[in-house]
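ARCHIVE RECORD
Type: protein–small molecule complex
Small molecule: magnesium ion
Source of inputs: curated submission
Record status: active
Notes field left blank by submitter.
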Amino acid sequence: MLPPMLLSIKGYSVGQKRKLTKGQQRRMQVNQEKRLARRQEATDTTWSDASLGEPEFGRIVSRFGQHADVLTEEGLVVRCNIRRTVVALVTGDRVAWRRSGELEQGLQGVVEAVEPRESELCRPDIYDGLKPVAANVDQIFVVTSPQPAFSDQIIDRYLVACEDAGIEAVIVLNKVDLLTDEEATHVRERLKVYQEIGYRVVEVSAHTNTGIESLRSMFVDRISVFVGQSGVGKSSLIQAALPELELLIGAISEGSGLGQHTTTVARWYPLAGGGALIDSPGIREFGLWHLPVDKITEGFRDFHPYLGTCKFRDCTHRDDPGCALRTAAEEGELDAGRLANYHRIIDSLDKN
Ligand SMILES: Nc1nc2c(ncn2[C@@H]2O[C@H](COP(=O)(O)OP(=O)(O)O)[C@@H](O)[C@H]2O)c(=O)[nH]1
Ligand SMILES: [Mg+2]
Ligand SMILES: [Zn+2]
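STRUCTURE (tokenized, with ligand):
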């Protein structure tokens, strides 16, 4: 069997069983070589402008190399080619796409342009440095739980990443059914700190359904993602709060036969009440990469009133004389635990 790319050449199709002249064969060969060498450019040439409809609005559901699944305004998912001029395209991008008159290699249209992003979620990539994986996310649910272990240090790491991306964070304490009385005091004290500095906090249980309704109400008209360490209950919460997505996500992330894409490709799930969830294992582990020190400092929103007021401009906010952050923590204006976590994050950078 020939790969699908060989089955069509501009104006001809093998299906019609027409004999090719020498000239046509040569052209076909040249074309094919061009395609192999510069695949993106070559695929562009298979779309003539005349066969394409007017630009339409769409949303990227998933991207697979040179192709993307686009959610149309009628709510259908169509597989499209991506124009060479469209350099970056990720799940959540708003695009202009054009419908094709005829089906070309199973593709139903072309993505022609991307709207500027409101936000970007990135993850480190060995080859490209930071690589965007999702666009236009407007809220991140940072999931934590008493089992395996409650850690405000990990929450702080995620919050720094959310602040850097400019995306609102909601802290979700899952598995409240497992919270013992001794743990509850400490955990709620820590969660109160986050509420006081302006983060929303919800206590839920995917097992007993505690708080699931209020969690669900937070999805309306927002573009959300779930992040958090393995085992905190992200999958369980998605299943409990958005039961309509359960089958879809299970089929895509755990199913076989979809190739290596399944582990990394993010996907857009439209929600019945408006809004969407973007999900992928890659996204769920978002945030644990290394930012420069000043970005980490800025990622602590409660530090903002003090930044620039330390005695020394290069203050490390440890035992430097005249440190405004340390003074604020000593006087109880700033949470000492947050300052300690800040230093732990900085120290962990130094080790790498
Ligand atoms: N007791 C209790 N266990 C939960 C709750 N949510 C999830 N779990 C369990 O925690 C484990 C990890 O959950 P999972 O959803 O796979 O976590 P993920 O790795 O973050 O996706 C599973 O054994 C779940 O059954 C909860 O609210 N209460
Ligand atoms: Mg999971
Ligand atoms: Zn300082």
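CURATOR ANNOTATION: The two ends are 50 Å apart (CA to CA).
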